[in-house]
Amino acid sequence: MAHEHKLEIFRGLWKFKSNTQKIWGVLAFLTLVTAVEVVLGIYKPAVLTGTYVLGMKLLNWIFIILTLVKAYYISWDFMHLRDEKSALRRAIVWTPIFLVLYLVFILLVEANYIFEIYKDGFVKWNF
Asked: By CB neighbour count within 10 A (0-12 exposed, 13-18 middle, 19+ buried), where does 46 fall?
């Protein structure tokens, strides 16, 4: 027997009367987050580009976080993860988040190495 889909988002803060209204609400949320990303990408405020957090510009961190928020929300709502057991939700959500953070760490370390090589010049080994 099929069960009803929940017609609410953000843990019940917004409730809708039909699936159509819910789809429009989700579209509005995802559009808002994407618009924030686009506006920040176009204007690139000096406060965000001049501030470094963990070796990377704050603006880049904001892009990464907003992208993860969108990916999490899409999987939460459209893949119906909210209706699953908590262990499955954690396995599906936390694994990619961990892998993305690991990838960011590796990219920062490697980028710093390449930057130092180009800054200090090439080293030629004499054998």
From this structure: exposed
On whether the CB atoms of residues 70 and 30 are closer than 8 A, the answer is yes
Co-location of 107 and 67 in the same domain:
no
Indicate the angle between helix axes 86-120 and 58-78, nearest 10 degrees. Answer: 160
pLDDT tens for residues 66-86?
998 898 888 887 787 877 888
Q: Is 55 left (phi over 0), alpha (psi -120 to 50) or beta?
A: left
Instruction: Give the distance between the most distant pair of CA atoms in the chain.
Output: 76
Are 26 and 41 within one domain? yes
What Rg do the C-alpha atoms of the chain give, in angstroms? 21
Single out the residue of 111, 103, 117 nearest to residue 56, CA to CA: 111
Q: How far apart are CA 82 and CA 17, in angstroms?
A: 19
Q: What is the pLDDT of residues 1-21, one digit of tens each?
A: 455 666 666 666 677 778 788
